[in-house]
Amino acid sequence: MMQPEQAVLVGPEESAASGALGSSGGEGAGPAVVLRGLHKSFGSQIVLDGIDLTVKSGETLAMLGRSGTGKSVLLKLIIGLQKPDSGSILVQGQEITSLDLQAMNEIRIKMGFLFQNAALYDSLSVEQNVAFPLKRHSKMTKSERGDRVKELLASVGMEGDLKKMPSDISGGMQKRVGLARALALKPGILLLDEPTAGLDPITSAEIDELILKLQEKNHMASVVVTHDLQSAKTIADRIALLHEGSVIIEGSYEALEKSENKFVSEFMKRDS
Question: What distance in Å separates the CA atoms of residue 56 and residue 48, rounded to the nearest whole number?
């Protein structure tokens, strides 16, 4: 868990930009995210080796792959927490790879990010965690923020837990609160890093159902990094499988199941 003063380090809803509420899902007629020729290495290790992907507005793309194949790195590149070595990243039509910090922070407000461990501030209550981006990036009155927080927590089934601290709720409940916070500024793009990681099968299924419900309601473009095949099957419109720095196959879950590629076939038969 984090402290509020760490906010500038961690993601879209806690970026240093100022502004009002972001746009709701489906902004503009073009695709939400376009990646072209994306390369990223750390020293001699090539992590991403020419990634080409497009995520349409209202679509959920699941990124699958073995551990260490660059799935989470891809999310960090989209959110601007890391820079690619080369290639292009368009977010709602705007190239972001050369933006300065202030301009990047303005883009981040259009995106919601759910961290793998929910990344709630342990010194703030559930209510205060969800209110944090609203207080920082909107011109809402205290009363308006309170109403919005209640609405958000109700949407994730946590309306009865406003005053609880993160340490008082389960991992699955923390993910729900993290989702509520990610949606606070009505983003057009939602990035989810292992939303079911560390959860039991029943709670994982509940999180999947919640993601589906929120996607249907808000019509966002979503990119979900996961190792959970069942989750990907449940929530994704399309799946991209990363292997050795490249997208080895892209399509529906059924298309991946029918693939005759040896790696794809083995991956679909067992969790990575």
Answer: 21
